[in-house]
What does this fold into?
Amino acid sequence: MQDFLYQVATYLKKQYESCMSQICVVFPGKRSAFFLEQRLNKVLSKGAKLPKMFSIEDFWTEITQLTPACPEEQLCILYQIHLQINSEKSPLQTEDLSDFSGTGILMLKDFEDIDNQLVNPKSIFSSLSTIKELSFYDKREEELTEFQKKYLQFFKQLEIYYLKLQEKLLTSDTATLGLMSRMVAENPSKYISKLPYKKYIFVGFNALTKAEMTFITYLRDNQLLDYLIDADKFYLENPLHEAGDFIRKIKEKLFFGKEIQFIGNYFSQNAKNITFIGVPEAIGQAKILESVLASIPAEDANASTAIVNLDENLLLPILHSMDTAKANITMGYPLQRTSCAQMLSILLLSISNRKSVDKEGHYSLYFRDLSAFLTHPCIENLLSESEEKKLQIKEIFLQNEKIYCSVKDFEKMGKEAQISQELWNLLTSVLYQCIDFEGYCKNLRQLLHKIYETLSSGELEKEAMYQLENHISLIQSVLTSNMVSNFETFRFIFEYSLRSLSLPFESMPDAHLQILGLLETRTLDFQNIIVLSANEGILPAGKRGNSLLPYDVRRYYQLPVYHAIDSITAYHFYRLLQRSKNIYLVYNLDTTENKTEKSRFLLQLQNELQHFDNVNITDKMMTYPFPQIASKICLDIPKTAEIVQKLQKFVYSASSINTFLKCGRWFYFQYLLKIRSDSVFDETHTLQSNVIGNAVHHVLQHAVKDGKFIPLSKQDIENQVSTFLKNQHNVPIEELQFEKNHLIFSIIVKYIADYLDFTMKNGDFTVEETEQKYDKTKLQIEGTEISLKAIIDRVDIVGNQRIISDYKTGEVNTDVKIKSLDDVFDGKHDKALQLLFYAFVYCREKSMQNIETQIIALRKMSQKFILQINEQSLLTAEILDEFEQSLTDVITHILSPNEPFSPTNDDKLCNNCTYKKMCGK
It folds into this structure.
């Protein structure tokens, strides 16, 4: 069967062979010209001249001799107009470009629609202003708030924005495509008279704007037009079918209802195999492509095939899921999805999230943003090709342990990591020196160029890096210094303009397998069609798009509304299928997303074509196969001779014993491998568990004099805490005044102040010692001497009895009351084991017999947490001897080479484990 463009080529040969060079062919898109040229070369005699061919956008540019203005340029010009229109007293004038951009983008879209539909701007903006005034009909002007007055004033000035934008664009010989079409439609003879063509052939157009219809009507009336439509009677002659809405209107207006050529009966006469395939999750659609291609009947396998991807997010999964070496990919990969573009987005976000940390306005960057930037592959590869060096840089950053990193801290890290001074200065400039717009763009381009040099030739990322460098130059050319009042403006323009950019793939236009979007299929035909993401909300897009113009206003002035756009999409979809033989319509079954329903277009096909004898419809759903586990995966880590040797030399603490009892693998990762997870550097974990506890211990230790706590003023406590945090945790005093740091600082001060106040009123004891280290206790286990260690927070004397006290700043449960010593070693009573461990070590080194232990919970100071075993608080020599035997048994298990490090069976414990990802349980 002949495709549409072959029919067009045959028609052009028949009608215009003698004057082919004097005709002009106009298409909806650019790709059609290549394929028509191929077919003309087949039907025309060798060496024959070909007609001039344009896409509609290029045609307007050719006629008007104007340059299309890019979206960034239009927005910046509109913002300049915005500043000129509003007086100095108006709060709108101080509005930054990034704040104005949301409204500005809507204005540009509406202005384009107004031009395309030849709407009288004075009329529509007057109507809009009246509608807005009616929303305050119940208020007199003097009753309006200042904001409401500015709101109404804005809509009254829209016509001024519109006219001034046109004026400024035309002054620089640029225009929007809508403005170009309007100029031509309003004075077609002026522009046509300058062109050498005797005939204008419009091929494959469906929906025409009013400007296009006016111009085409002029051509028809002057015998200059030939209009070729591609459609099927199936939807064209059905007045209720949305796919034929616009062609029926064209037929009435241009052909006065007469029959037109190239209208076929493809749906009702040609054999069609239509398969609906539901696949779980979006990426699953890409994964099944190979099997779908393999299912195409052998006699059609080498025919033209198109994979029509309706969701650009699927392009990369498609490329990774199948062999595309001989495919023609015309969609283009979105530049914003490349790794280097994401690196720049992380960088710009880091600067947007920066904080002023002193009175002079010096900035610091949030550690999570800075970490994401420094560990991005583009930056890691720039800093070093060595994995060992990358780990060293990361470790240096983790050791800094700050919520906000100042420029001095950053420079210090660079010296510690021994990074090239020139390179680190460049990173410092793009992270911290972003006040001068021109200079910052220069530094960004320099950084991109350095990254570009580290990439291998032919990489997608290398082309992306090159485009990004040019993209920043473009932004620099359209933005003026008075527009960039803050960094958010640059960031917004960068990300806004990035959305429209894509990376082209090496083209093979005549390949039998094409990967393209729906709009790129206009006028093209394929024997085999695979449509991906055929879900409602994508096909069609539905009620999308915002506008300053209400729905009723758009309808009245015949501006595009969502159901008109749905009709256009319906035509593209049905036209694509009309000549195809094997059709596979794939949709996402995933119910966790909003776009879950099968497209209504698919439901229509099932309903409309089920009675056609020439159409075979199959509906199936695919599911993931359940994995068959051949054998149980071994999660145990065996103990080698080297590991046993380490265990024998290891100094055991209460924490290490508790960790082993909870999970052998946890013990192995933390104490033997000494792996420090990135999650350790976390503002919640580090500040609450580490910094708060350390600061409280330090101040309370120095608040004891002659065995008694001494009163401290709030200022004294704050000074001691500030000094401690600065000296021990490298937290500058000025950082304690902001956000979470200030909150943590206040918590520490409150804990200490409240405890000292409580102790002064209720304390009847003598403090014997604080923060004392004990590390001389040994255990003899199978001929090996095992060392124990403990740091005891405080030992008090009450009467003749000594009590070991342990501070806890976190939550404390009542697990210090146990029935027997066996319960202590079940892995669930870690605080009880810790207190017993302290008591055992203390009594052995002090040669004592009896002692008591308790937890001092700073969150619940009035509540006592005294260790009790079978309701007995006094830890006697017998109890400590029994504890020693149980402790010896546990360490014996740890040392045993026949007992591997096994994971816990407690899934709740796994959920909160630092080493969850590397464990694999």
Remarks:
- The chain has 40 helices and 32 strands.
- The chain has a mean pLDDT of 87.
